[in-house]
Amino acid sequence: xxxxxxxxxxxxxxxxxxxxxxxxxxxxxxxxxxxxxxxxxxxxxxxxxxxxxxxxxxxxxxxxxxxxxxxxxxxxxxxxxxxxxxxxxxxxxxxxxxxxxxxxxxxxxxxxxxxxxxxxxxxxxxxxxxxxxxxxxxxxxxxxxxxxxxxxxxxxxxxxxxxxxxxxxxxxxxxxxxxxxxxxxxxxxxxxxxxxxxxxxxxxxxxxxxxxxxxxxxxxxxxxxxxxxxxxxxxxxxxxxxxxxxxxxxxxxxxxxxxxxxxxxxxxxxxxxxxxxxxxxxxxxxxxxxxxxxxxxxxxxxxxxxxxxxxxxxxxxxxxxxxxxxxxxxxxxxxxxxxxxxxxxxxxxxxxxxxxxxxxxxxxxxxxxxxxxxxxxxxxxxxxxxxxxxxxxxxxxxxxxxxxxxxxxxxxxxxxxxxxxxxxxxxxxxxxxxxxxxxxxxxxxxxx
Length: 448
Description:
Elements: H1 3-24, H2 30-48, H3 56-74, H4 84-95, H5 105-109, H6 112-118, H7 122-127, H8 139-151, H9 156-184, H10 192-196, H11 199-207, H12 212-227, H13 231-245, H14 255-259, H15 261-279, H16 285-300, H17 308-320, H18 325-346, H19 355-369, H20 379-385, H21 392-399, H22 417-440
């Protein structure tokens, strides 16, 4: 079978499976879901087994497939996530002139006349997965919610598609930036496929409407502008990343050794200023308190697919028969931040082309200590892993869909220790092995 025929067959089979996952398979049907997803990864492996150097025509074909698969995902109502109800809820409030950070959803629904006047429909409220908590989404996302809800006030599906177009556009930007950075740093262009055709990325970001896509785009743009020595433009990109997901603040310590203390402090101050200006239209004291409260609940109450967090919890039950994580959680958070700072100060290679690897490790440190590791969180590791020699994020992206096993008996969420072991042990093993190889052959770049 020649390469052209193989690519056509892989593309046709992938299209059929994407239709199955995105349009036809609810997350409760775990057996069918994971079978389709697993087959997509086998096909993805087939795409990536290309020669080290491929022609511009081949690259155009792969890039076109990456765009096509994402476009296919744009028009699917998310079947694996119900977060979009909160997105539309917040957007509807903004469209009615209300600040979505100020009141709990139940407060509005307690007054039917008020809810109706604001356009808050009962089907939206019933779809919320956390109606008892204040919203946590930063201003860039709130703007997207507003656009979606305003342009399609009477259709949930229409609002979802509009919001997905923002994710789609961000993904196109990320694909272009990954290609340009690989080309600029003279790294193998086939690494582009690791993000472009990764089914996990396509399904979780465009398919399930997760805005890590915007954060990834703005972080990549930050690195791109840093590499071009356009420092002040990069502060804007990083501020947009923070105003999309808050978490990118953890990359600021990586600037200290690269810029020196003086420039790094100024850089961080500018990022903070641009971020503050974006928060300003919705910020008052009550908003600040509610955001802080939501973050506290998110960090200290919710649990899903954690690693060290669950180990500490298990140790507590073993020795003292209660969940010590509530007491150990703040200490763990401090240790995570100290570890990130320690990594930043210990870096030896501080060229901008090493920045993706540094971001990869900083995010990994954060996820290792996190109480919640939803599948789509791994997408950031995949993006920056594609710009580095490390392939454990690709393995993680293949295994993390197993966590949907927890949703097999709705509405309950029941995790399995065996699933967690099946997910984390291979990833941790490959991570250790790749770190060992990197220490022995620091200049080797391989695609495994």
